[in-house]
Every structure is written in structure tokens, then in C-alpha cells.
Amino acid sequence: MAPLKSLEPEYPIIDVNFQNFCASHAIFSVEDFVLHDLYQLAAFAEQQPTSERLKEGITQVLNIIDNLHQPWLNGLELLEDSLQNKQVLSTGFEGVDLLLQGGLREGQLTELVGPSSSGKTQFCLQTAANVAVKNMGYVAYLDTGNSFSPQRIAHFVGQISESAFNQTKQKIIQKAMSSILCHSVFDIFSMFDVLRQLEFDLRSQMDRGEYRVPLLIVDSISSLISPVLGGSGSQGRALMISAGFLLKKLAHEYNLAVLVTLFSKFNEPVKSLVKFSEIDLYL
Questions:
Q1: Which helix (H) or strand (E) holds 219?
Q2: Which of 215, 228, 258, 262 fits 251 for a cystine, CB–CB 3.0-4.6 Å?
Q3: For the segment 106-145, what is each residue's pLDDT rounded down to a tens digit?
Q4: How far apart are CA 62 and CA 65, in angstroms?
Q5: Cα separation values, 22 from 15, 34, 74, 235, Å
Q6: Nearest to 54, CA basis, from 64, 73, 41
Q7: Each residue of 252-267: pLDDT tens digit?
Q8: Alpha carbons 254 and 5: distance in angstroms, whole number
């Protein structure tokens, strides 16, 4: 959900004073707000010199949350939405597309699981290049291990547009490369920040009818989740569940095809770390 700071231009009541009050209670986003004890928060607000304005801010955030609720849909409406609004994005790998009945489907999250050096990142790069070349929209690419290679992307784009003349081919490469938006993230909290900002941007762009982002890639989510799963506390699992919820929410509400990669060791049963995808592919 959106950072509280991003709401200030549209809702002046959510000003710096209100944001600082929330931050003192570890509330930085609408999602943090929902997870907090609101009765306790209102009680703390009562003790502040600007208590009335703070309570108005709390009410305003609650109204925003109410407006975000999705209406009930019956099975027929969901089927029509799937057929009319959820495209299938070709990965560029004929065998995988055949397995997935056309490719990655918008509105769904797909996990790609395999051991180190099994080709997970190459699959992500090839898929990103294929979507960009075919002008399906922008690709948001979260790189967690400095494995994103613009040279490989350019190579894949060149292969896809092999039949084009040199001058046209160069233009295709430039356009495709500019359609892939890469962001490096090295811990799960940075990923949450990036995803929340992406959600806010997507909502704003949809309202203005601007460009769409049909594909979100996280390569590799394992490196972000594994460090927080250690120890006896429950925080790691809570973060893992939150990551899955947010990715599936983005997929459903903004018609994104979400692709995440996960690491598994050789000669071990393949187990998903996050258990939130509709589709699992094992290498």
C-alpha cells in the first residue's frame, strides 16, 4: 500500500506533523496503519497538543482504506475479467509457453525454482526482452544479486529482431531497453519500499491513462527472504507472508504477470520458500 508521505498532496490533513506522529509508532504506510491497534493510536493522539487534527488524519486514512476495498464478484464476472482483461505474455521459450498454455498470465504469480546456475536469471532476462520487444508495455525488474545484464538483454532483443535491417534493429533494441526498468534491492525491506512505490505509481498512471506495466520480475526473492527466516521469532515468517500478499495483490489489481525466482539445492526436494504462487516451474 502507499507510503503515507505520498498521500499528502491529495490529502493535506496527512501533513508532516501527522506523518511524524505515525512514524513515532513505526507507521510509515497505509499497510502499517492497518496492522496497528487503532484504538491505542487514537489514545496516543489524545495526549498530543494537536489531538483534534491528528484524529482527523486517522479518520482520513480510514476513509482511504474503505475506498480501496474491492467489490464482491461472482464466478462469471471473474471468468469474464480473466478472458477480457488478463493477457498471456510469451516468455520467448516455446516449450515453457506450451507448458503454461501460452506464457505468463496477467493477474497471476509464477515461481521459477531451481539450483544455482540452472538458468533462472537467463529465463528472466529472455522473458523481459521478449515482452519489451513485442511492445506489450514496460517491465519492472527487481534485481537482488547484481545479476541483471543489459548486454544479455540487448543480445536477446537482437536475436528476437534478427530479420530486421540494421538501422531498424538498432531502434528496436533502444526502444526495448528503455522499456525495462531495473531496480536493485538487497534486503526485504527495500523490496517492500520499491513495491509500495510501484503500487502508488501504477494507481496514478491508471488514473491518468498512461503506460502500463504488464510484467514484474523479482530475481531472486530467495536471497531476500532467507536471511529473515532464521531464529526462533515469528518476524521472518510474517515478512514472508507479507511479501506474498503484496505480490499477489499487485498481480490481481493491476493485471501484472509476476515472475519470481527461488533457489533450491541439488538432490533436495524442491520446496517453495513462499508458498504463494498459482504456478510453480522447477528447473
A1: strand 215-219
A2: 258
A3: 888 999 888 888 889 999 999 999 998 886 678 999 999 8
A4: 5
A5: 11, 12, 38, 21
A6: 41
A7: 888 899 999 987 765 4
A8: 22
Reading the block at residue 196, the C-alpha cell is 509500495
Cell of 193: 519500499
Give the long-range contacts of residues 144-149, CB within 8 A, separation 24 or more.
144/184, 144/185, 144/186, 144/191, 144/218, 144/219, 144/220, 144/221, 144/223, 144/224, 145/219, 145/220, 145/223, 146/184, 147/121, 147/219, 147/220, 148/182, 148/184, 148/219, 149/125
Question: Does 220 sit behind a cis peptide bond, omega within 30 degrees of 0 on the bond before it?
Answer: yes
d(CA 33, CA 109): 26
Rounded to two decimals, the pTM is: 0.68
Q: Which helix (H) or strand (E) holds 184?
A: strand 180-184
Q: Are strands 180-184 and 215-219 parallel, antiparallel or unpaired?
A: unpaired
Please check whether residue 239 is in contact with residue 197, taking contact to mean a CB–CB distance below 8 angstroms.
no
Q: How many Å apart are CA 90 and CA 22, to the nearest integer?
A: 44
DSSP run (H or E) holding 190: helix 188-208
Cell numbers found for residue 195:
513495491
Q: Cα torsion at 273, 276, 277, 282 (round to 10°)?
A: 20
d(CA 187, CA 131): 27
Q: With contact defined as beta carbons under 8 Å apart, do 64 and 11 qualify?
A: yes
Q: Across the beta sheet with 109-114, what order do the strands follow? A: 180-184, 139-143, 215-219, 257-263, 109-114, 279-282
Tell me if 91 sits within 8 A of 130, measured CB to CB. yes
Amino acid at 36: H
Taking Cα atoms as reference points, which of 134, 89, 126 lies closest to residue 261?
Answer: 126
